[in-house]
Design goal:
Strand content: under 5%
CATH class of the largest domain: Mainly Alpha
CATH architecture of the largest domain: Orthogonal Bundle
Structural class: mainly alpha
Strand order of the largest sheet: 1-2
Bound molecules: protoporphyrin IX containing FE, 2-acetamido-2-deoxy-beta-D-glucopyranose
Length: 422
């Protein structure tokens, strides 16, 4: 993401031919135009919600901040801290909108952080839930859909095949909602807050600006707005553009698959991760999607096709390269702020409760990573390992199981070679 003034430069250049036309001018202009198209193709800068109609003088501090974040003029990350959190059920807690969110953050954190330090299945599902609630919106649906809680509140949404796998986190959100609704907490906020708490709990994940005050809706989001793992790059790029998310933003958001372990795309490989460090918010997903990758890493066809598209590849490769982690975290945070506010028309009235989030973890290597490496290197599906990784456990006690399989495979290879049957 880089703030671009090429469009303005080009608007100026368009007047040039009448003033100083010369041979080759058209070609030069064509090149300039192509360059502008490439740059302006890819960064999301469009305004959303009530920010479209409010003038700068009408903006609240939060309105200003959100506007600056989504146009690429302020960071979507923050380390802001919360001092002297009031006790729950006191008048001073009730007087501070963010106070209850500190207690919610603590509750969520406990279910999102596994014993190994990796984030859990619940954390990944919370990130995906935030995406699926908010992304049920497009520029043509206006006030309908978006980050409005309907993925939990409208019972028909969970029956849609693309939401398969979100059943448990939806149940959990309902439990949290029942627990905290009395404090004025909306489902829409709970879902988006769940996604940002989960992201920062995943080791190396960004601490994303988190706002509260969204309205709920129990009207189902318009159907057909969520992506599928067999969709083409052209289709997916257009789908996200209709949500104001341009290719660079999509490239950053896709990296959420760095933590994931698919279960339903190929059920015979349930639990196989999308990179060699599931539960860790690192850039290995970008490297291994481009290849090479170990046998247990399962890459979605849509991720492969997108990574090869000229509108996606340069940024994808940059995230995979030197300095990629910081660059990605920054871009992901910015784009997630945008995503988390799609279909929200009271952005100017929201409250910034980023200070309640857990601290970011900026360096991390799992104690059992070498065993995970052995596992992702195996060609045989080991459900027990996949399950232990799913819930964020250490897999140290599964070492002998993995070694047994590796030795068996090796013996089979040796025997096959010895009998000459290969
Ligand atoms: C081209 C766009 C995308 C496609 C086609 C896609 C598709 C999928 C599929 C098929 C799964 C596996 C579900 C399963 O079998 O369990 C998955 C998992 C996941 N996706 Fe995406 N996704 C896309 C974009 C995103 C975005 C933008 C985010 C977040 C910002 C995201 C976050 C996740 C997470 C966290 C998981 C893991 C869920 C879990 O482990 O329960 N995805 N995605
Ligand atoms: C960018 O941010 C700076 C300070 O934060 C502000 O002065 C400037 O007006 C902003 N520019 C835009 C385009 O919003
Ligand atoms: C994905 O890419 C492959 C290889 O380029 C191509 O054969 C396939 O048609 C693409 N899939 C879609 C859905 O576009
Ligand atoms: C914003 O808050 C003010 C004061 O509480 C309220 O009057 C107004 O209706 C709110 N606007 C929106 C769009 O919710
Ligand atoms: C996680 O999975 C492991 C292995 O399947 C199991 O022993 C452990 O009890 C599970 N832990 C939790 C918290 O679910």
């Amino acid at each position: 993401m880089r703030f671009s003034s090429t469009a303005a430069a080009l608007a100026g250049a368009a007047f040039l031919p009448s003033v100083l036309g010369y041979p080759g001018m058209d070609k030069l202009l064509g090149e300039l135009q192509d360059k502008a198209k490439r740059q302006d193709c890819c960064d999301s800068t469009e305004l959303i919600g009530d920010l479209i109609t409010l003038s700068d003088s009408q903006l609240s501090p939060v309105g200003h901040l959100v506007k600056n974040i989504i146009v690429g003029n302020a960071s979507g990350e923050s380390n802001e801290d919360y001092y002297n959190v009031p006790l729950l059920n006191t008048a001073s807690c009730a007087a501070d909108t963010c106070c209850i969110w500190q207690y919610i953050a603590n509750t969520m954190e406990a279910s999102f952080r596994g014993a190994s330090g990796r984030c859990t299945n619940a954390a990944r599902a919370a990130v995906r839930l935030g995406f699926h609630d908010a992304a049920g919106w497009s520029k043509s649906t206006g006030p309908l859909g978006g980050a409005d809680g309907s993925i939990v509140l409208a019972p028909s949404e969970i029956l849609r095949p693309k939401n398969n796998g979100l059943q448990e986190i939806i149940q959990q959100m309902q439990i949290w909602y029942n627990q905290y609704h009395g404090y004025g907490v909306s489902m829409a906020d709970l879902i988006q807050f769940g996604a940002t708490v989960a992201t920062v709990v995943c080791p190396l994940g960004p601490r994303i600006h988190s706002f509260v005050g969204r309205y709920d809706s129990s009207i189902p989001a318009p159907d057909g707005l969520l992506p599928g793992p067999f969709d083409s790059a052209d289709f997916l790029i257009d789908l996200f553009r209709d949500k104001t998310i341009q290719p660079h933003g999509l490239t950053a958001l896709l990296g959420a698959h760095s933590t994931s372990q698919q279960r339903f795309v190929d059920t015979s490989r349930a639990g196989d991760p999308q990179d060699g460090t599931p539960g860790v918010w690192d850039v290995l997903y970008y490297k291994q999607t481009l290849g090479p990758k170990p046998p247990r890493v399962f890459t979605f066809q849509s991720d492969i096709n997108l990574s090869e598209d000229p509108r996606i590849y340069p940024e994808f490769a940059a995230f995979a390269g030197p300095g990629g982690q910081q660059h990605w975290n920054e871009d992901y945070a910015r784009e997630y702020v945008r995503l988390s506010l799609l279909g929200v028309y009271n952005i100017n009235n929201l409250t910034d409760c980023t200070k309640t989030l857990p601290n970011a973890i900026t360096t991390y290597v799992a104690a059992d990573q070498w065993i995970v490496d052995l596992w992702v290197g195996t060609t045989i599906h080991l459900q027990a390992v996949a399950d232990a990784l799913l819930n964020g456990s250490l897999i140290t006690n599964l070492l002998s199981l993995i070694l047994g399989i590796l030795l068996k495979v090796k013996r089979t290879v040796v025997e096959t070679v010895a009998t000459g049957s290969a």
